[in-house]
Amino acid sequence: MAQVQEWSVYQLAMDGAIQVFRVVQQFPPVARNEMGQPMVGSTRGICLRLVEAWFRRWQVEGFGARLSGVAAEASKVQVWVELAIAHGYLTAKRGEELYGLYGELAAEVMRLRQRAVGWAVPLDELNGGEGDESAE
């Protein structure tokens, strides 16, 4: 894979973020602000953290830490989904779909986290083949 957009977990996160944004647009105005904004923010944060992880692959600890953050953020989205169902802003069916999507995302990220070493990439590959000349 040459770009983060090719990463299946990133594609799943982006799909989820778009779905949540569309769902939140149908919340009542007060709920859109109080519940929808943080919910959408969490989904966008997941995408951003995945991009950060992608560019931290040369540092296994940094890569793994970013992935752990993604899993935590996905769990937060699941809580927002539960609250939206409880308040009647989401149907149980739609809520279950979103809850499942973010559960799948968290599980996939934790599998990646367990294999972080296998994703390690030399720094010069992340720089497009240009080595770090200051280290010479």
In short:
The protein has helices at 8-24, 29-54, 60-86, 92-114, 123-126. With 136 residues, the protein is mainly alpha-helical. The protein has a single domain (4-115), classed as Up-down Bundle (de novo design (two linked rop proteins)).
Structural write-up:
With 136 residues, the protein is an all-alpha fold. 71% of the residues lie in helices and 0% in strands. It has helices at 8-24, 29-54, 60-86, 92-114, 123-126. Helix 1 (8-24) runs antiparallel to helix 2 (29-54), helix 1 (8-24) runs antiparallel to helix 4 (92-114) and helix 2 (29-54) packs antiparallel against helix 3 (60-86). The longest helix is centred in the middle third of the chain and has 27 residues, at 60-86. The protein is elongated and about 50 Å long. The model is unreliable at 130-136 (pLDDT under 50).
Distance between the termini: 28 Å
The CATH C-level name is Mainly Alpha
Which residues sit in consecutive blocks of at least 5 with pLDDT less than 50?
A: 130-136
- Tell me the major beta sheet: none
In DSSP terms (H or I, runs of 4 or more residues), the helix count works out at 5
* E-strand count: 0
Q: Cα-atom Rg, whole angstroms?
A: 17 Å
Query: What's the helical proportion of residues?
Result: over 70%
Query: What class do helices, strands and sheet pairing give?
Result: mainly alpha
Give the CATH topology.
de novo design (two linked rop proteins)
When the domains are counted, the total is: 1
Quaternary state reads: single chain
Percent of sequence in beta strands = under 5%
